[in-house]
Amino acid sequence: MKHKTNKTAAKRFKVTATGKLLRRAGGTSHLRRKEDSSRANRKRQLVKVSGLSLKKILRAIIS
C-alpha cells in the first residue's frame, strides 16, 4: 500500500534544498506586547529542527 504524506506536517515544516528542516518559532500567536523588539524580530525567523524529532517529521512529510 502506498504511503500518504501527513498534510499537517507538510504545512508546518519546510525542507530546504540541502535536506534541513525549518519550522516557525513558538510563542508568536498572542501575548507578545510584553516582548522587546529584538525578541519579536528573532521569532519571525525560521528555526532549524534537530534531534530525534527531525527523523519523525521527515518520515511523515516524505512518505
UniProtKB/TrEMBL annotation:
<feature type="region of interest" description="Disordered">
    <location>
        <begin position="24"/>
        <end position="43"/>
    </location>
</feature>
<protein>
    <recommendedName>
        <fullName>50S ribosomal protein L35</fullName>
    </recommendedName>
</protein>
<dbReference type="Pfam" id="PF01632">
    <property type="entry name" value="Ribosomal_L35p"/>
</dbReference>
<dbReference type="GO" id="GO:0015934">
    <property type="term" value="C:large ribosomal subunit"/>
</dbReference>
<keyword id="KW-0689">Ribosomal protein</keyword>
<comment type="similarity">
    <text>Belongs to the bacterial ribosomal protein bL35 family.</text>
</comment>
<dbReference type="GO" id="GO:0003735">
    <property type="term" value="F:structural constituent of ribosome"/>
</dbReference>
<dbReference type="InterPro" id="IPR021137">
    <property type="entry name" value="Ribosomal_bL35-like"/>
</dbReference>
<dbReference type="InterPro" id="IPR001706">
    <property type="entry name" value="Ribosomal_bL35"/>
</dbReference>
<dbReference type="GO" id="GO:0006412">
    <property type="term" value="P:translation"/>
</dbReference>
<dbReference type="InterPro" id="IPR037229">
    <property type="entry name" value="Ribosomal_bL35_sf"/>
</dbReference>
<keyword id="KW-0687">Ribonucleoprotein</keyword>
